[in-house]
Write a structure and sequence with these properties.
- There is one protein chain.
- By secondary structure, this protein is α+β, with helices and mostly antiparallel strands.
- It is built from six helices and twelve strands.
- A six-stranded mixed β-sheet has the order 3-4-2-1-12-11, with no helix packed on it. A six-stranded mixed β-sheet has the order 5-6-7-8-10-9, covered by helices on one side.
Length: about 280
């Protein structure tokens, strides 16, 4: 009988700068680790996509910037990878002009240096924020999936630039969701639970209908325990599952899990089903 669910994972791969990230993704590729049907990646070098295609044949990529990694330039962006066919692939720029640029404001160690507003402005003008939306077909069912890497702000302080980027993201996702009969978002949003950006997404500000928060309430942090913020005692949910449900169908999640020690973010995974006739 057809499997009426889809497994999905989202992970900020940190530009594959850490050996543990390489090791974990390689385990997914080789089958040593259970591989999801769909993998959403943020901060992934485009040059590494052929290696990942060994497990996920279908790939949609959107470039954010020509990053500086260990002294060499590498195009870095976001990607949706699927073991099943993908159709209706759309991409959208939520911050920037859509033209690939050499990233400025980082040193050879891939650090914002010096950590000042001027450095942040350099990065803002050379790194776009992108979103991807696709339709995955598994067992004759259509699953509409999106990912993005949300606008980053220093110290979590909301800015007008973050508001503008989030507004453009919501306009894009709403348009795509309306055209596709619902949408499931798996992404590093770069905002926490309950704040202004969270309210913008869930309350439907700037859009007709908000996105529902699909994260279990008991999850209060998605950063890796080794992350400097967590080491100082901080907790934040920055990696998210959101859904735009329709009047006659709804996304239902089960087996929501966090996997640590794979990057500076945890890998967030779940099983997604679509319920009809609601």
């Amino acid at each position: 009988m057809p499997n009426k669910s889809l497994t999905i994972m989202t992970l900020n791969a940190g530009r594959l700068l850490q050996q543990r990230t390489w090791g974990y993704l390689n385990g997914l590729v080789t089958g040593a680790e259970p591989a999801p049907d769909v993998l959403c990646l943020q901060d992934i070098p485009e040059r590494d996509l052929p290696w990942l295609r060994r497990q996920w044949r279908h790939v949609a990529f959107a470039a954010m910037t020509n990053h500086l990694i260990n002294g060499h330039r590498a195009v870095v962006g976001i990607a949706i990878l699927s073991r099943y066919p993908m159709i209706y692939i759309t991409r959208h720029t939520t911050w920037g002009n859509g033209k690939l640029k050499d990233l400025q404001g980082v040193n050879d160690k891939n650090e914002r240096f010096p950590p000042t507003k001027e450095t942040d402005d350099l990065i803002d003008t050379t790194e776009d924020r992108r979103a991807i939306c696709v339709t995955v077909i598994k067992d004759n069912r259509k699953y509409n999936i999106a990912t993005t890497h949300g606008y980053w702000v220093r110290g979590g302080a909301t800015s007008d630039r973050q508001r503008e980027s989030t507004r453009k993201l919501l306009e894009f996702l709403t348009r795509e969701g309306n055209a596709r009969d619902g949408l499931f978002l798996a992404a590093d949003m770069n905002f926490g639970r309950g704040g202004e950006m969270y309210q913008m997404v869930t309350a439907g500000r700037h859009i007709a209908v908000g996105f529902s928060d699909k994260m279990p309430a008991n999850i209060d942090n998605t950063l890796d325990p080794d992350h400097p913020f967590v080491k100082k005692g901080g907790k934040v949910v920055t990696d998210w599952f959101f859904a735009q449900n329709r009047h006659d169908r709804s996304f239902v999640l089960s087996d929501v899990r966090l996997r640590s020690d794979v990057s500076d973010h945890c890998a967030l995974s779940a099983t997604v089903e679509i319920e009809y006739g609601l």
